[in-house]
Specification:
Layout (H helix, E strand, L loop, with lengths): L12 H25 L7 E5 L8 E8 L7 H28 L17 H6 L5 H8 L3 H9 L15 H13 L7 E11 L5 E5 L2 H4 L5 E7 L6 H13 L6 E17 L9 E6 H28 L14
Antiparallel strand pairs: 1-2, 2-5, 3-6, 4-5, 6-7
Helix pairs in contact: 1-2, 1-9, 2-6, 2-9, 5-9, 6-9
Length: about 325
């Protein structure tokens, strides 16, 4: 099936070419990161009992995880390129519109707007003067495409924006801009610890201090009328074997784009900031899809304008959740 943008004249050739380069880099990162993306969701554990803090009815022990090799450094440079080039795809498309339609550049930044508060800036005279000037010079149909591409907060428990890709591109590319690398790291964090066995109580001793990052200390208190110290040693040893045990401790591992925590500002929290970490798979899958969808919609509007008709058309819906 021939892609729509290849079947008609377009002013966005440079943007499509840059997007192809983004997608090539994405595939390179996928290949490089595959040994780590194929790791089990739960890390393999190591355990060590603290004999000095052990007595009848009480054991203390440390849980760590088996180390994995370092990720190839090439990934870090490629991720910086991906987000910076993704931003360039959008900016080049706006520049092409400005040149093709002979729009006035005075007093505006000819770049694709990515705003946490796009709707507010459209009506707020103090915050949105530059944005409104930009919008006033564009055909309303292009403005609709741009508005759809903003980080749209739709409500819900956490109120995560539908176009989270727009936030990734804006925040990560601003942090990078080819001035430094954007590191990808394997993050391992405690996700759960419990026991349902009668006479056993499992406690995390230092999760608050370390925010759940191993190694962490645990205590297990037990009813010595039901269990022996040998039983408890076996339960702790079995954690390292990932065998079914009376004690359950899980550390999740995932690849994180670790340039910075990405700030979100959900309206339902009255502007309070929520920090969000971008997982590598989010960036690799959602960012190219978001760029492709946005360019396709810009191209569709351009085609309708060029025909000089009021032909009815649909814009593609967001597919980058």
């Amino acid at each position: 099936m021939v892609k729509e943008h290849e079947t008609q004249a377009t002013i966005f050739n440079d943007s499509w070419s840059r997007l192809s380069w983004v997608e090539d880099q994405v595939e390179r990162v996928r290949r490089l990161a595959e040994p780590w993306t194929l790791l089990a969701n739960h890390a393999r554990l190591t355990t060590a009992i603290d004999e000095l803090a052990t007595n009848e009815g009480h054991f203390e022990f440390e849980v760590g995880v088996h180390p994995t090799p370092e990720l190839p450094s090439t990934i870090n440079f490629l991720i910086g390129n991906i987000v910076t080039d993704a931003r360039s795809c959008l900016d080049m498309a706006i520049d092409a519109i400005w040149r093709n339609y002979g729009l006035d550049e005075h007093g505006v930044q000819v770049q694709f707007p990515l705003e946490d508060n796009f709707a507010e800036k459209r009506v707020n005279s103090r915050k949105g003067r530059g944005l409104r000037t930009f919008i006033d010079r564009l055909d309303d149909r292009f403005v609709e495409v741009i508005e759809r591409a903003q980080p749209n907060y739709a409500g819900g428990m956490l109120d995560i924006p539908a176009n989270l890709s727009a936030v990734f591109i804006s925040k990560l590319s601003n942090a990078n801009k080819h001035r430094n690398i954007t590191p990808v790291t394997l993050q391992t964090v405690l996700t759960s610890s419990w026991t349902n066995e009668p006479g056993l109580k499992l406690t995390v001793l230092d999760a608050d201090m370390k925010q759940g990052i191993p190694p962490l200390r645990f205590a297990v208190d037990y009813d010595s009328a039901i269990y022996s110290g040998r039983n408890i040693c076996e339960y702790i040893d079995e954690l390292g074997l990932q065998a079914p045990t009376a004690l359950q401790i899980n550390f999740a591992q995932r690849l994180i784009v670790d340039r910075q925590e990405i700030p979100l500002f959900p309206p339902r929290f009255d502007g309070a900031k929520i920090e969000w970490r971008a997982e590598l798979d989010d960036v690799l899958s959602k960012v190219p899809a978001y760029i492709r969808l946005t360019l396709r919609n810009l191209n569709r509007v351009h085609s309708i304008i060029e025909k000089g008709t009021g032909e009815f058309y649909f814009l593609d819906s967001n597919s980058t959740l």
